[in-house]
Amino acid sequence: MHDPGCILITGASSGIGEALALDYAAPGRRLLLTGRDTARLEAVAEACRSRGAEVAAAVIDVTDRQGLADWLLARDGERPVDLAIANAGISAGTGSGGESEDQARAIFAVNLDGVLNTVQPLIPRFVARRRGQIALMSSLAGFRGFPGAPAYCASKAAVRLYGESLRGALAAAGVEVSVVCPGFVVSRMTAVNRFPMPFLMETGRAARLIRRGLERNRARIAFPWPTWAAVWFLSLLPPGLTDALLARAPRKG
């Protein structure tokens, strides 16, 4: 979608979400920003306002299904949402380290349920208006399971397949759906990694790539291309050829 007037971004208090908010901030545009850290979210909101955007920010956990739905529908009633970016996500590394049962459940709750809680309240309104765009934040980790992050990989794979399916399901209603699959991007999530991250990308560049892909209504926005090519190739190979290699890969947490 070109030039959306009202944009929702979850997980907007840092990382890619913050970069997207700043990139989209402009006079005449309304941004709906959510996050879990009050101070960081307000700092992002003020930076966007300084660029001329109107901003409504709320500290809401995306796992709060009813609370998020109530806030989204109220804001949509004030000015219809054009673009919803379901960006909020966590990994084991942003918690206590390691994917214990509790950690795995928390990852699925935020990365998968949080996406559903973000887009499902808006889909009926998009369909009724016969316009709107949805961007779901998956990951290149969603193309092949890595031993160091089982729940993270699985949650992002589910988001990717959900988005690809949703794109076809909503196309006839005039609603656009894109799946975003970044590699390593500078963020609080990657800051805890204690291993080399190939082709680590700055958040500003990632935001520009995402925005360009959304403007072109691309089904899949995957970057950087060398990492994308590598994980795509790995996903094609039988596990018997890749398990031993991936077992030596660094683990998150």
UniProtKB/TrEMBL annotation:
Residues 5-188 form the Ketoreductase domain. Keywords: Oxidoreductase. The keyword Signal does not apply. It holds the Pfam family adh_short. Its EC number is 1.-.-.-. It comes from the Bacteria. This is SDR family NAD(P)-dependent oxidoreductase. It comes from Rhodocista pekingensis.
